[in-house]
């Protein structure tokens, strides 16, 4: 993998997102998610071809396209709500990946998919909205444990039901990395991963993921960085405070809006049918004269 390295402003505490390269250059934005110790930073370093994380944001050129990777320490564990009550860290993640990621890389070590990984995915859905699953690529670290075997065979044969369900949810977008690999081996692995992401981007007609918070971050591009961070954090905190059921409905509604006319029609027909069945059942079961007649 060749290309000029272009990481800038990595220590900017408010994470100005468009801070490397020319804005006209195509860019793939990737957010690393997963439980602590899964190998997120190591994966970020593999993709960028250099040890960058410790710091949270870096961008670099690779052969085909510029890639921006956002690392996310401690945002997807059970303690995040206590550790980040005002959503400042999570808003920072939004600003670093604005105007929205092309893919979420859900990182998990091969052979160790646990309840913590499931929790990480749940937190990611909560943070970005349920529609983000359509952007998830499952990345297994410790590829060397496959001993030359195929990752697709591994997920097909695994007895871990939760993992099989996740792979189905991600529509089979899986790959494996040995983050200790170097040279052409590392390049080949990263090319495979970026190929998956590019396929995903093509499916979404070149678009990136977005939601209300990303739209707000874009609308506030001209604002002071601290103000932008504060406003996005407030909006996130407001949404995450709502009861889970309400959040799910709001997320589904936002997702539906982004899917266009066919989905609207389908959903309207489904809801209409459900209401009709309910009314018919209610009128049959609830009419007391029926009961009188039968007794
Ligand atoms: N053998 C092997 N070790 C790996 C691989 N990927 C990551 N590791 C090791 O796994 C450990 C955790 O990796 P990190 O990248 O720090 O994990 P993380 O998800 O960033 O962890 P937090 O930042 O604490 O959330 C480190 O010791 C890595 O060297 C891999 O592909 N193979
Ligand atoms: Mg890390």
The ordered H/E elements are: EHEEHHEHEHHEHHHHHH
What small molecules does this complex bind?
Answer: guanosine-5'-triphosphate, magnesium ion
What CATH architecture of the largest domain would you give?
3-Layer(aba) Sandwich
Distance between the termini: 82 Å
Low-confidence stretches: 1-21, 287-295
Rg over alpha carbons: 22 Å
Structural class: alpha/beta
What general outline do the C-alpha atoms trace?
globular
From the 3D structure, determine the CATH topology of the largest domain: Rossmann fold
How many distinct folded domains? 2
Describe this structure in words.
- The chain has 295 residues and is α/β, with parallel strands linked by helices.
- It folds into 2 domains: 214 residues, Rossmann fold, CATH 3.40.50.300; 35 residues.
- It has 12 helices and 6 strands.
- A 6-stranded mixed beta sheet has the order 2-3-1-4-5-6, with helices on both faces.
- β4, α4 and β5 form a beta-alpha-beta unit.
- The N terminus and C terminus are likely disordered.
- Magnesium ion binds next to α1.
